[in-house]
Amino acid sequence: MIARILPALALAFGLAIGAPATAQIGGPVSGTPQNPIASPATADELELQKALTGGRIAGRVSIPDATSGSLIQPEGRGWRDFHNVTLTWIGGIAVLGMLVILVIYYATRGKIMVDAGLSGRTIQRFNLLERAAHWMTASTFIVLALTGLNLTFGRFLLLPVIGPEAFTAVSLWGKYAHNFLAFPFTLGVVLLFLIWVKDNIPNGKDVAWFKAGGGLLGKGHPPAARFNGGQKMVFWITVIGGTLVAVSGYVLIFPFMVTDIAGMQLAHIVHGVISLLMIAAMMAHIYIGSVGMQGAFDAMGSGQVDLNWAKEHHSLWVEEEMNRARNTVAPTGARAAGAD
Amino acid sequence: MPWGINRRRVVTINDGRPGERSISMACMHCTDAPCAAVCPVSCFYTTADAIVLHDKDLCIGCGYCFFACPFGAPQYPRVGNFGGRGKMDKCTYCAGGPQQDNSGVEYAQYGSNRLAEGKLPLCAEMCSTKALLAGDGQMIASIYRERVQRRGYGSGAWGWRTAYKETVGV
Question: What ipTM goes with this model?
Answer without folding.
Answer: 0.86
